[in-house]
Design a protein that fits this description.
395 residues, alpha+beta, five-stranded mixed beta sheet, four-stranded mixed beta sheet, 11 helices
Length: 395
């Protein structure tokens, strides 16, 4: 074992001054950013600099087969191989090719060392793997033919794993889409006994209370619901450490009951507008402003569990979004939601049957999702295991 810096040359890139347009406009020199290193085989660049930019900055040209290691931020520890001559920014360390090492051997070795490098990275929010740490990393001195044997085995194994991962991810997407597809078909292929009416004829929607900010807390007996407690696909989201509580005096009219139906009237994140939740339990959650409490009108055939799904249909969400106002943050109101026309079975029994069937399907799709998520995790663990075996003489 020897330190990388004793057997390989390394270097980092640089960033030409962004204020100098001539360093970028019309540039033809590929300039790789740290986020692009995770491609593994780096064949293309999305950014380019000019010859002036290269000559007037710390940027440098790395030759083909340079192994790249991302050093900063969320991508720290990612490894790639440069398959064409290119420059990089300062967040990338380049390990230059030499006759002693096969580039893919170095690539796989630093892939195996990724967790170790990230663990010793400086900084919490933004990890920083310095070039010195990379140069001080000990690498095995192995005959070239043995390097090529190990690379050949890993290439073959990783190709098979990539195929298996792609299939598992595809099946995971199918499992996620299964429930959505069935939900939409319930409302587009409906049979007899259905009606269409605007929400205004079916329910009333009540604004929440403007609770005073001075009584917000990170702990307490009452959770202050916000749009952040809504999943984009509907449903209650526990925000964990970011959960908001309220410790001031509480108007009893704004303490919610179990299975109350609420709808988000502010889109704090994409897809939240019109998203519904059913309150998980009584006497714990508060009805905050910008959330609408949905209550059926007298004599209307209505179950909250069924109309929760109504709010999750594509057409209803589309109509709520279309009538909302605002550019950066979209807002709607009870009046605007009331104008949206919805379809529903006029039989409470039929609504209950649909809810039950959707619940069964949700359970099955969640089971499938769990299976494929476990497969993806197992394949990632197998990759790590193979890399460990490769560099401990066990492969």
């Amino acid at each position: 074992m020897k330190k990388l810096g004793d057997v390989c040359r390394t270097g980092s890139g640089g960033t030409p001054l962004s204020s100098q347009k001539e360093y970028y406009e019309g540039g033809t020199i590929p300039w790789i950013l740290s986020g692009e290193v995770s491609q593994g085989e780096v064949h293309t660049a999305t950014k380019f600099i000019t010859k002036q930019g290269l000559e007037n900055s710390a940027a440098r040209l790395f030759p083909k087969d340079t192994v790249l290691v991302a050093m900063y931020g969320a991508t720290a520890g990612q490894v790639g191989i440069l398959r064409f001559e290119a420059s990089t920014n300062q967040a990338v360390c380049g390990i230059l090719p030499n006759k002693q090492f096969a580039p893919r051997f170095i690539f796989y070795y630093f892939l195996a060392k990724k967790d170790d490098l990230v663990a010793q990275a400086a900084g919490n929010a933004q990890p920083n793997i310095s070039q010195i740490k990379i140069r001080n990393t000990e690498v095995p001195i192995v005959p070239l033919h043995e390097q090529q044997r190990i690379v050949g085995l890993l290439d073959e194994a990783f190709a098979g794993l990539a195929t298996a991962q792609a299939n598992a991810k595809k099946n995971l997407q199918k499992a996620r889409a299964l429930f959505e597809s069935h939900l939409q078909s319930v409302f587009t292929q409906r049979g007899e006994g259905w009606a269409e009416k605007p929400f205004s004829e079916l329910c009333d929607i009540k604004h929440g209370y403007a609770f005073e900010g001075e009584f917000f807390s990170n702990k307490g007996a009452y959770v202050l619901l916000t749009p952040g407690n809504f999943y984009e696909k509907g449903g209650y989201r526990d925000r964990g450490e970011r959960q908001k509580y309220y410790t001031g005096e509480i108007p009893r009219d704004y303490v919610l009951n179990k299975y109350d139906l609420l709808v988000a009237m502010t889109e704090q994140a994409a897809g939240l507008l019109g998203s519904p939740i059913l309150v998980p339990e009584s006497d714990k959650f508060l009805h905050n402003q910008r959330l609408g409490l949905v209550a059926k009108k007298p004599g209307v055939p209505w179950t909250n569990a069924f109309f929760f799904h109504v709010f999750n249909t594509k057409q209803v969400r589309k109509d709520i979004h279309a009538s909302a106002s605002g550019v950066k943050v979209r807002h709607t109101s009870p009046t605007k939601i009331g104008e949206v026309i919805v379809a529903f079975p006029t039989s409470i029994l039929e609504q209950a049957k649909i809810v039950s069937a959707l619940a069964d399907l949700a359970t099955e799709t969640q089971r499938l999702r769990t299976i494929y998520q476990q497969k993806i995790a197992a394949l990632a663990a197998l990759k790590k295991s193979l890399l460990h075996q490769a560099f401990t003489g066990a492969l």
